[in-house]
Amino acid sequence: MASSPNSINRRRFLQISSGSVAAIVLPDISLSAAPASADRPNILWVSAEDISPDLGCYGDKYAVTPNIDALAARGVRYDNVYSHSGVCAPTRSGIITGMYPSTIGTHHMRCKGVPPAYVKCFSEYLRAAGYYCTNNSKTDYQFDPPLTAWDQNSRSAHWRGRADGQPFFAVFNYTTSHESQIRNRSKGMLQRIAGLKPNEKHDPAKASLPPYYPDTPVVRKDWAQYYDIITLLDKQVGGILKQLEEDGLADNTIVWFWGDHGRGLPRAKRWIYDSGLRVPLIIRVPEKLRKAALPANPDSLKPGAVNDDLIAFIDFAPTMLSLAGVKIPKHIQGRAFLGSRKAKPRDYIFAARDRMDEAYDLIRAVRDKRYKYIRNYFAHVSRGQDIDYMNQMPTMKEMRRLHAEGKLKGPEMQYFEKTKPVEELYDTASDPHEVNNLADDPKYKKVLERMRKAHQRWVIDSGDMGLIPEPEFDEMKRPGGVYEKTAAPTFTTGSGRSKESGRVTINCATKGASIAYRIAGGKSSGWKLYTKPVPLKDAQTLHAKACRIGFKDSSEAAVRLEGGHAISDIKGSEATSENIQHWTELLDKTDLLERLRKIKQLDGTGKDAVPEYIEALGDKYGSVRYWGVIGLHNSCKTPQIIRGVRPAVKKILQDPAAVVRIAAAHALCDWGEADEGLSVLTKELEGKTAKARLYAVIALNKIGGKARPALPAIKAALKDSDNYVKRVAQTTLKKLEN
Fold it and tell me: Are the beta carbons of 571 and 558 closer than 8 angstroms?
């Protein structure tokens, strides 16, 4: 391919089919409305949080899920469906956009992304095509949901609010199975579980635990409650399907049931093992819609069918558009698996783990139908990191207790190994729990090389941003932490006796902005998506707002038609904003990603890489210098080598990049230079950038008892404005006190 691998605007975006990668052109996306058609299917999404395919219809004899099983019996059970992340927010940012979070900069948990201008919520395309789109009610997209994404977005959102004959896309998201409910021992939850029939309750003694969990009553209790809340969820699924039947819509509606990532237990949620990625997906297509839903093979959608094609979550958006007869924008990285625009089945799915709450990690995964390849870019970091929310789970507490007592054995110990292998390879056919790493087994050398190559190609062609430290990336996407504001809409109208007289055109100067409008006193007071000039009657007032993902919404503007021709502009006082150069445009001019990939090729080579790490300390990019320090910190193990590199590391304590200074100070603390290192880390705890402060407090946490002189600074961090900084400070204080 001719384009530069680091170019964002001209980058080769992934379109994987049978292992091939296609070059994608990125046009400006038009939201011209397609005419609504009576034969367009309604689509209902029923999504559940934090569940693996632990359902009766997937062969789980412990599960009690009659309503979901009945749906599967009337539809298609998909057996190879995977999230691109093991946690909700990055997962949902990819689902709603059809793009990898690591491409559009929404990969860190609970970040606020600023995707490129062409990125839209796919529901906008459906709205533009005449669909009534509702979301009840979780978004969690890593950006604020734009006003233009949904007709209704609330706990009361329902397909019943649509116009007569209007096709709908309705999402109902149930939180009953969320991680927090597994450990919920409140009176209300216990009463709900007690209300289950005897044959619906799960006996902890009959649970079949994965081999990486210790077999104790505490763990079995969590496991049983996880299945109990899935049974409660099953009843909710039955309820919404009953509503569909009561409204006489079942024969015109395609129903999806899916989970947003794996079960909410340790080594599942947040992880990109199959326990965190593989999810249930059941799709019921009514008989009269099957030919349109899969023209080449409608019989494969008959009741009780099973599909084992590899499907990724980023495939959901293009598949929805394909089913609705809407053109799939070229920038979307997913591949439709149903509808008139169905693509060839994929050979691989890809996944990523980055910062999870207050803990940094950097892991990528590739999976085909049998093998899973994992690349640990933070191989020096244990799997068993402290995450406050996760640590509240009784199973996690039990694992930590038994580890401290030296009572874990075999696969149970894997979670607490001090470091991770640079590469992991699993045969999921013989090892579904992924506990037997084959990366060093000569028999699997060819498989390892093939999967490694697929990973490397994906990293390049998708423009994976993960190697840029978050503080550096935050400054890149929002210089000075300032949110750009979308420009206020402007209005023009036809004049005189022209056909356009009384029709108002709305524009916005911000590239990539969408516009919502409403007419005061009209039949509907809700905001509509602007797609074409709006007819306005005399004395009516048209209100409009503009929004772009990752920007603040514009102030509201309004216009009044007077005498059939005159426009009285009563727009707010906001002036058109001057767009800051987008981070994709900045990256387009650099070779940063290429240089980052090059230095990370040194992982696992030990002291042989020291000269190249030393050279990296002088690189023009702070992100590369950061990885140079990390490489030295984790490669230099003997006193002699440490003495040789210490002067170079000391020198960059004055580096312009905070992440470099922090990494250098951390290394020096571990190398016996705690006084000098601590002075830097305590100073960085008072820095302006929240994520740089998080890096600093994490370093203080990791150096253990050497951080005691910094206790006053750590205690002060308990009042930090960033919750993650406060959490790590609290964990660090507990560790030092113990």
Answer: yes
Could you give the strand order of the β-sheet that contains 514-519, starting from the edge strand earlier in sequence? 528-529, 514-519, 541-547, 557-562, 566-569
Q: Please name the residues in contact with 137: beta carbons below 8 A apart, sequence gap of 6 or more.
A: 153, 154, 155, 157, 173
Q: Which helix (H) or strand (E) holds 455?
A: helix 445-461
pLDDT at residue 15, rounded to an integer: 35
Residues 6+ apart with CB under 8 A from 393: 179, 182, 183, 222, 264, 265, 266
142 phi and psi angles, rounded to 5 deg: 75, 10
- The span from the CA of 519 to the CA of 561, in Å, is 11
Residue scoring higher pLDDT (111 or 12): 111
Is 311 within 8 Å of 337 (Cβ atoms)? Answer: yes
In percent, the amount of the chain with pLDDT more than 70 equals 91
Q: State how far the alpha carbon of 492 is from the alpha carbons of 29, 501, 542, in Å.
A: 22, 10, 12
* Rounded distance between C-alpha atoms, residue 604 and residue 606, angstroms: 6
pLDDT level of residue 107 (50, 70, 90 thresholds)? very high
Angle between the 658-670 and 690-702 helix axes, to the nearest 10 degrees? 10
pLDDT digits (tens, 9 = 90+) for 583-613: 999 999 999 999 999 999 999 999 999 999 9
Residues labelled as active-site residues: 88
Beta-bridged to residue 351, according to DSSP, are 365
| Contact predicate 485/400, CB 8 Å | no
> How far apart are the C-alpha atoms of 517 and 177, rounded to whole Å?
37
Q: Show contacts of 8-11: CB within 8 Å, 24+ apart.
A: 8/116, 8/463, 8/584, 8/585, 8/587, 8/588, 9/584, 9/585, 9/588, 10/588, 11/461, 11/463
Residue 20 scores a pLDDT above 80: no
CA atoms within 13 A on the CB side of 488: 16
pLDDT digits (tens, 9 = 90+) for 386-440: 999 999 999 999 999 999 999 999 999 999 999 999 999 999 999 999 999 999 9
Q: Within its chain, how far is the Cα of 400 from the centroid?
A: 28
At residue 522, the pLDDT reads 58
> What confidence tens digit (pLDDT) does each residue in 512-559 have?
999 999 998 655 668 999 999 999 888 889 999 999 999 999 999 999
* 81/74 Cα distance (integer angstroms): 19
Q: Which residues contact 550 (CB under 8 A, 6 or more apart)?
A: 112, 113, 114, 115, 143, 477
Query: Does the pLDDT value for residue 25 go beyond 50?
Result: no
Name the one residue in this structure whose structure tokens are 């009766």.
56
Question: How far, in Å, are 156, 312, 622, 626 from residue 588 at the CA level?
Answer: 43, 27, 17, 21
- Percent pLDDT > 90 in the chain is 88
Task: Record the tokens describing residue 673, joined without a space.
Answer: 């230079």
Rg over CA atoms, the chain: 27
Of 447-456, 576-585, 632-641, 704-713, give the lowest mean pLDDT range: 576-585
CA dist., res. 540 & res. 280, Å (int):
49
Q: Are 283 and 89 in contact (CB under 8 A)?
A: no
- pTM attached to this predicted model: 0.94
- At a CB cut-off of 8 Å and minimum separation 6, what does 362 contact? 353, 354, 376, 377, 378, 466, 467
Residue 171 to residue 46: CA distance in whole angstroms: 6
SS (H, E, C) 341-367: CCCCCCCCEEEEECCECCECCCEEEEE
Give the Cα separation of 475 and 486 in Å (integer).
Answer: 19
- Angstrom distance (rounded) from CA 177 to CA 50: 6
Task: List, in order of start, the domains of the chain with CATH numbers.
Answer: 42-178+237-348 (3.40.720.10), 371-477 (no CATH), 483-569 (2.60.40.10), 584-737 (1.25.10.10)
Give residue for tokens 């580890």: 403
Question: Cα torsion at 277, 282, 283, 284 (round to 10°)?
Answer: -170
Comparing 96-110, 423-437, 553-567, the range with the smallest average pLDDT is: 553-567
